[in-house]
Design brief:
Two copies of one chain form a homodimer.
Chain A lengths: L5 H19 L8 H11 L6 H12 L4 H23 L8 E2 L2 E2 L1 H5 L1 H22 L4 H18 L4 H11 L6 H26 L4 H28 L2 H4 L5 H4 L5 H5 L1 H17 L9 H12 L3
Antiparallel strand pairs in A: 1-2
Helix pairs in contact in A: 1-4, 2-6, 3-4, 3-9, 3-15, 4-6, 4-9, 6-7, 7-9, 8-9, 9-10, 10-14, 14-15
Chain lengths: 299, 299
């Protein structure tokens, strides 16, 4: 078999996702133009598009159709972007730089940034519900996707994780609390991305369960690598300052377990993610390559 | 016909809604307990439950089943409460008091208040998607409700209206801009409440269209009365300071058109709302009574 070319794959999918996002996001016009401009600014500032690409790749693994997954893939990125905007706010992490450009509240003011986040979160559900046509099968799948997405983004997922992250800032943290933050703040939405792609792609119950396992392990590895990059990363490549976790006395994996142990743990999760794909054929090659990429990434 | 007893009706429905909200909201436990506590604090602080009651009353008008509408009714109140929490934030209206108690950010801090709002908004969609069972008809109706709700709450509705309200603070405003704010900030979700009740209740296309008209007119009347109460209201009855719009130099209907003209305009909208119900029988009596209540209310 020819070696799978992940770089080209990511480039192509990122391009597809960017086009779809551009088409979904309203043009900044009318009285509320600043809101629409702020939403567009943050979404189009770039980013790896990891979550939408995971949804597309999971759909491919179960023989799904890309155009059917695209609204859900974009919804994932809108929700990811909203979470970054709100996390960056002065009352939260108070970050000035994101993806190499000023954060939303620095560029548009705090009120508009809060509203842009609210707008993106709501719009994610709007494009999902809009995408479902009179086809009953699609309605069932879309409702399931909305349910998975809301759980992963909300109080039992991302919002819950961010809450504990905020509460524990400047406090002693134990490994159980750190695991909670990792699993909920980042892991939940990454796992949901894979699940959502598999649902919209029409995967079987067994496939869904294997891909959920893949997504869960990948999400945990991703967050450990994120913590490592905050220590070892290159500021210019990452587009944001390194060392900010330490500066804010934030709980991280390397702070609790050391760099070597953290690297090992990330690799363990990646191995677990890969073995969850054992029963899949080469249509899961993109998911396999993404798992290896996540641990080698430098931004 | 015996005079419809609105007071008892509102009391009974408010009780039903409060019980359902209490059951939907998770108990504050686990690492993210402060988040769940803040959500519960703001939702259970009281309020008229106007939006859920409108949904229930609209469902009754089309012969719907209350238990089928209740998740959507609660979702409306969760979204209404999230919007109050975010609007009250220091970066927005900076209000300390709401429904007679300290606002969420005063009680729980700004970060938790932002997250509680995010959590409530996301949870609204979660309970809607969760409520849909394997029944195809229900799936179709639920997806339609999610679509209507997201549009009314998001950039083309409430978030859009709040944006323009924020942008225009301390600026000269014309009647077109004021109409935009009223229609989007408050009107959209009130109209959606009526529509959502009618959809879940299984109303016909004609009924939906008449009820949407009712909801639109009611929403506009409601906001004008709100503006009037900020000038003429009783602080103790309302549970929040009066005169805050003037203090913040906010655009209001009476500021632009005077008190007398505003009262007249509100009554015009109420008349329009009532005439939209002409083709309905006495099952629409609650909706008629609510319209008359909206213009006579003192909080």
């Amino acid at each position: 078999m020819i070696q799978f070319d992940l770089k080209s794959y990511l480039k192509e999918k990122r391009h597809n996702v960017d086009s779809a996002l551009d088409a979904f996001l309203p043009q900044p016009e009318g009285f509320s133009a600043p809101l629409l401009e702020a939403m567009r600014y943050s979404v189009m500032a770039g980013g790896k598009r990891l979550r939408p690409i995971l949804a597309l790749a999971a759909s491919e693994a179960v023989d799904g159709v890309q155009s059917e997954v695209m609204p859900a893939a974009c919804a994932l990125e809108l929700i990811h972007t909203y979470s970054l905007i709100h996390d960056d706010l002065p009352a939260m992490d108070d970050d000035d730089l994101r993806r190499g450009v000023p954060t939303c509240h620095v560029a548009f003011g705090e009120a508009i940034a809060i509203l842009a986040g609210d707008g993106l979160l709501t719009y994610a559900f709007e494009i999902l519900a809009r995408g479902a046509d009179a086809n009953n099968l699609n309605s069932q799948k879309t409702l399931k996707v909305i349910h998975v997405l809301a759980k992963a983004a909300g109080i039992t997922g991302m919002v819950g994780g961010q809450t504990v992250d905020v509460i524990m800032e400047n406090k002693e943290i134990n490994s159980e609390q750190l695991a909670y933050i990792h699993k909920h703040k980042t892991g939940a939405l990454i796992q949901a991305s894979v699940e959502i792609g598999a649902i919209m792609g029409g995967g079987s119950r067994e496939q869904l369960s294997a891909l959920a396992e893949y997504g869960a392990a990948l999400g945990l590895a991703f967050q450990i690598v994120d913590d490592l990059l905050d220590i070892e990363g290159d500021e210019e490549i990452m587009g944001k300052p390194v060392g900010s976790d330490i500066k804010k006395n934030k709980a991280t994996y390397p702070a609790l377990f050391g760099i070597t142990k953290s690297r090992e743990k990330a690799q363990e999760y990646i191995d677990k993610a890969l073995s969850s794909l054992d029963s899949f054929d080469n249509k899961a090659e993109p998911l396999r390559a993404i798992a290896n990429y996540v641990i080698q990434r430098n931004r």
